[in-house]
Amino acid sequence: MSSEFKMEIGEDDIPYLRINEEFTLRLDLEDLDEEYKKRATKDLRETPENVQEALKAIRQMIKDEPGLNLPIEDEQFLIKFLRPCKYYPNSAFRLMKKFYVFKAKHPKWAANLYPTPLRHVFDKEVFQFLPTRSSTGSRIMIVNVGTKWNPKEVSLDDLFRAVMLSIELAMIEPKTQVGGVHVILNMKGLSLSHVYVFSPSLAKMMVEWVQECAPVRLKAIHVINQPFVFNVLWALFKPFVGEKLRQRLFFHGTNLKPLCEQISAKCLPPYYGGIANIPDFPGSLFSDMLVYSEKKFEPCNIYGYVKEKVEEADGGD
């Protein structure tokens, strides 16, 4: 590991990685600053009146839902579901139910999501966060589904679990609750050995989670550097992709100019077509940051439906 980089701990006990004089990768767990408060008001209808009305309504819905165990007095916990739905409590509650039904129905992928068992995915840089945010404040996540991904070392199950863990992280970052997420799927080096680990049933489940269950403002999914074999993989996923998700899917190939136009060249390093001076840094340091924050993920793993009520909740929506 290069001695040039190291994880540090702030006075607020939040870990960060100083990449150079210009950029720092940090978990943004503090309350919104004035810029993001204005965005929340403008984009999400986040006014004191709407917040209190929505909190009151969703608390009652949770109380009335059999077998759903959630911390209803924890305002920040509830807001992470309300923000993606612009403080419409009915929409937020539907999303909440789908999220926790999915977790209960698919424990192989969704239960006990903690950084330590998944750190090999981040160590090998199959999944990465950029230290920058988009021009509109979105978190930028990278999934390297090609050269950096060896399915014998990082199983597809663990890759999907790492994506889910990262969305859990996005859910607890107030800035990301407001700004949303851009996902870049870097397909450089994708081969049939990668494609063969997928199945139609797994593709269906992944798409279901992304477009129906994930409580995050998904701004866009950008597919870049895809080789011809990507068409085989896309044929597995395409039948399950709904219109709303299709509108957020962009296939760039090797022409990264549109990617930079949508996210901003100032936020992307040259290998993604941008101009930001972001050097490569070891994925193990991002793992260190996540592992240091392991306790932050406890609420993600202890709440949800009691087992005997899952089918009832799933059928009642």
What do you see in this structure?
The chain is an alpha/beta fold. It has 16 helices and 10 strands. It has helices at 34-44, 48-64, 75-82, 89-105, 107-110, 115-123, 156-172, 174-179, 192-195, 200-213, 230-237, 243-246, 257-263, 283-292, 298-302, 310-315; strands spanning 7-9, 15-18, 24-26, 68-69, 127-133, 139-144, 181-186, 218-224, 249-253, 304-305. The chain is globular and about 50 Å long. The model has no long low-confidence stretch (mean pLDDT 94).
List the helices and strands and how they pair.
Layout: E1 7-9, E2 15-18, E3 24-26, H1 34-44, H2 48-64, E4 68-69, H3 75-82, H4 89-105, H5 107-110, H6 115-123, E5 127-133, E6 139-144, H7 156-172, H8 174-179, E7 181-186, H9 192-195, H10 200-213, E8 218-224, H11 230-237, H12 243-246, E9 249-253, H13 257-263, H14 283-292, H15 298-302, E10 304-305, H16 310-315
Q: What is the helix fraction of residues, given as a range?
A: 40-55%
Helix-strand pattern: EEEHHEHHHHEEHHEHHEHHEHHHEH
Structural class comes to alpha/beta
Task: Give, in spatial order, the strands making up the sheet with the most strands.
Answer: 5-6-7-8-9
Number of DSSP strand runs: 10
The backbone outline, from C-alpha atoms, is globular
**Beta fraction:** 5-15%
Distance between the termini: 50 Å
Number of DSSP helical runs? 16
Q: Spans of 5+ residues with little confidence (pLDDT < 50)?
A: none
